[in-house]
Amino acid sequence: RSGKQGMRRTIRRDTVESNEERPSKSGPKPPEVHLRRMRAEAALDKLAMEVDRHRHSGTDELLIVHGRGYGAEGGVAVIAPLVKEWIKDNPERIASWRPAPSDWGGEGAVVVRLKGMS
């Protein structure tokens, strides 16, 4: 009996590992900035710092993971609207943005195209 249980666990683990290695349907994923579960001010500070760091290094796109807000007090998203407002308020840094594909985070993330340094 214990041999079968061990086998099941191994099969599950192998399945999880193979799912993680599966290539994305959306192409190569850009570098990520994670802001989930952060306080608003800290999230915006980190966002500005990471965007500037990636602009300086010549990165074209960035995946900003802000979460969906399900864990927020009252179930109302806080970080997502702040990120989108910050993007609109920083046209010198951000060329454009789009919702993230579902396999990159869907509603919980956005992909931004960064403006190069002048």
Roughly how many Å is the radius of gyration? 18 Å
Give the structural class: alpha+beta
Q: Helical segment tally? A: 3
Low-confidence stretches: 9-21
Helix-strand sequence: HEHEHEE
Q: Tell me about the biggest sheet?
A: 4 strands, mixed
Distance between the termini: 67 Å
The rough form would be described as globular
State the helicity in percent bands.
40-55%
Largest sheet, order of strands side by side?
A: 1-2-4-3
Topology (SSEs and partners):
Blueprint: H1 2-21, E1 32-34, H2 40-57, E2 61-65, H3 79-88, E3 94-99, E4 109-114
Helix pairs in contact: 2-3
Task: Write a brief structural summary.
By secondary structure, the protein is an alpha+beta fold. It has helices spanning 2-21, 40-57, 79-88, and strands at 32-34, 61-65, 94-99, 109-114.
Structural summary, described in words:
This protein has helices at residues 2-21, 40-57, 79-88; strands spanning 32-34, 61-65, 94-99, 109-114. Residues 9-21 have low confidence and may be disordered. Helices cover 41% and strands 17% of the residues. α2 crosses α3 (79-88). The protein contains 3 helices and 4 strands; from the N terminus they run αβαβαββ. With 118 residues, the chain is of the alpha+beta class. The radius of gyration is 18 Å and the shape is globular.
